[in-house]
């Protein structure tokens, strides 16, 4: 399982994390259903980051 030490949840208009390299999408299912978008795992300035856009494009 992929790991990240830092998690970022983006708000309205923040759909991607600029500067993130080696990015992979992680699709998850929770007891509450699927999140608004895939979790993106990548590296930013040498640190593993997990990014989730709170509102997917189109605010779904």
UniProtKB/TrEMBL annotation:
GO terms for cellular component: cytosol. Transmembrane segments: none annotated. Keywords: Glycosyltransferase, Transferase. GO terms for biological process: L-methionine salvage from methylthioadenosine; nucleoside metabolic process. GO terms for molecular function: S-methyl-5-thioadenosine phosphorylase activity. InterPro entries: MTAP (IPR010044), Nucleoside_phosphorylase_sf (IPR035994). The keyword Transferase applies. The keyword Nucleus does not apply. This is Nucleoside phosphorylase domain-containing protein. The lineage of its organism: unclassified sequences, metagenomes, ecological metagenomes.
